[in-house]
Design a protein that fits this description.
alpha+beta; four-stranded antiparallel β-sheet; 8 strands; 31% helix
């Protein structure tokens, strides 16, 4: 019987999760989703409300979305990223509602056997999410 090298065996389908939430994003559940014994690389992006936007003091950001469409778009982008960058798992969580300074509005975690895929996937995903997903952001400043 001939053995097939590990590189030629079928990979399991990547684990995909794209979601919109109306509460603070916690990292532990996302980490639990993307990490397993077969992944050697885990990469994260956390987009956080910053205090200053140029010379303006930010109080908070608020986000709205057409939830059914935005959820479909997040999952479609996650699937495309998984295929394009050979990811084992990917989780995208975008927060809706008010996001105060210091809290995350979006977290993306992805994993793969090696570092190249996850590290390349993060900027690609953020660019695509900003361009393609129907989420609207409003900035609220101290001076109105």
């Amino acid at each position: 019987m001939t053995q097939i090298p590990a590189e030629q065996t079928a990979r399991p389908a990547p684990r995909i999760r794209g979601e919109l939430v109306d509460h603070e994003i916690t990292l532990q559940p996302l980490g639990d989703f993307i990490v397993d014994a077969d992944t050697g690389a885990h990469a994260w992006f956390e987009g956080v409300t910053r205090r200053m936007t140029g010379s303006l003091q930010t109080i908070l950001l608020s986000y709205e979305a057409f939830v059914p469409m935005a959820t479909r778009q997040l999952n479609a982008l996650a699937e495309e990223a998984a295929a394009r960058f050979s990811l084992t798992a990917i989780a995208i969580t975008h927060r809706l509602g008010e996001v105060p300074v210091g809290e995350a509005s979006i977290v993306i975690g992805c994993s793969a056997a090696h570092r190249v895929g996850p590290l390349a996937a993060l900027p690609w995903l953020m660019d695509r999410i900003k361009a393609d997903v129907v989420v609207w952001k409003r900035e609220h400043f101290a001076d109105g």
